[in-house]
User: Which sequence fits this backbone?
């Protein structure tokens, strides 16, 4: 993770904005430290000394007190704990960071080009139809229509006089976000897991606040695959694992099969080719060299199974390994899905744009 700071000047921002900015920096560091509050505070204190982030008006101790006062962290048995509000703050900051880089024409929230008996009002009006919500009636246009037809002395309101606002037709979407937690995600001095966690946190906040009917499940995969909650994300770490893509896809498919008749998709963030799978007797088979046909073919079978279940897979590659690119080409064909090569600083933007674009296509 790279953070850039400049020397703070007393005239550069108000005390409120300054405090808000420091909380955002603290959120960033928490993701990097896997939710370790003590380590994050130590890092922030060192940054404060180096970049003069604190002074007599707002000391480091004052800042910690503010974190507790605002309910982002609490203290129990001498240890700091991240609260629910603190977790939400991390998601909100991740969402803001990603959307701040989006182009204006890709950040709009227009769920579909169709209209119908939805939820969000549009500016356009239409004639009332049976089943339209009474709360969507435009009284001004309705009364004006009645006056035009019957006059002020013999006022009569008929059904054909009533006009209602058009509404956006909203559909629901179930998404499984798969995150690679194999050792290569922190190998060679490049931190790839922190941007992946930021994407997951931001996507979770987007769905919770803007698309509450949508569902998001998170699956991490290394030697094996497991589901984690949004609350677990800041604490997610990379292990000494291989890449069992098959297990991740199988678990994601099982989760989505339980979602009923909704639009289903998998977003997979990975930096390595499949290098592990479980054999029929439950043992794990690993091979980190090249593209092992035994592993690749079983993984492609899962891609086909997802296609048959009408689950589209979008893969975000955060490495340009020769073997990874070759595998993804075959994998994408098998699923009839999509794949992108993403720089780490563009990963969030690419995921969000594709999520919003897919919601339009589902309608």
Assistant:
């Amino acid at each position: 993770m790279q953070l850039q700071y400049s020397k703070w000047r007393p005239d550069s921002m108000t005390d409120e904005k300054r405090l808000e900015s420091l909380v955002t920096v603290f959120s960033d560091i928490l993701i990097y430290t896997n939710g370790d509050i003590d380590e994050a505070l130590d890092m922030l204190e060192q940054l404060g000394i180096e970049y003069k982030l604190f002074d007599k008006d707002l000391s480091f101790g004052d800042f910690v007190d503010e974190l507790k006062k605002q309910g982002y962290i609490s203290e129990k048995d001498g240890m700091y704990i991240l609260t629910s509000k603190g977790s939400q703050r991390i998601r909100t900051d991740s969402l803001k960071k990603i959307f701040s880089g989006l182009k204006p024409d890709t950040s709009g929230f227009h769920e579909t080009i169709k209209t119908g008996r939805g939820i969000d009002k549009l500016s356009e009006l239409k004639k009332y139809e049976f089943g339209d919500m009474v709360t969507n009636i435009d009284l001004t246009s309705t009364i004006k229509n009645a006056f035009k037809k019957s006059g002020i002395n013999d006022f009569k309101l008929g059904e054909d006089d009533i006009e209602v606002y058009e509404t956006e037709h909203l559909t629901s979407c179930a998404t499984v976000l798969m995150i690679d937690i194999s050792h290569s995600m922190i190998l060679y001095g490049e931190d790839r897991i922190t941007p992946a966690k930021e994407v997951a946190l931001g996507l979770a906040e987007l769905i919770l606040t803007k698309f509450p009917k949508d569902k998001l499940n998170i699956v991490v995969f290394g030697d094996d695959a497991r589901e984690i909650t949004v609350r677990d994300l800041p604490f997610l770490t990379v292990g000494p694992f291989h890449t069992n893509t098959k297990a991740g896809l199988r678990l994601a498919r099982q989760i989505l099969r339980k979602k009923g008749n909704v639009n289903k998709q998998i977003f997979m963030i990975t930096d390595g080719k499949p290098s592990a799978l479980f054999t029929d007797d439950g043992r794990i088979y690993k091979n980190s060299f090249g593209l092992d046909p035994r592993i690749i073919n079983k993984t492609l079978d899962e891609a086909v199974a997802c296609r048959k279940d009408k689950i589209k897979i979008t893969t975000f590659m955060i490495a340009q390994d020769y073997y990874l690119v070759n595998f993804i080409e075959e994998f994408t064909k098998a699923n009839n899905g999509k794949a992108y090569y993403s720089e780490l600083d563009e990963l969030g933007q690419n995921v969000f744009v594709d999520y919003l674009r897919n919601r339009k296509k589902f309608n």
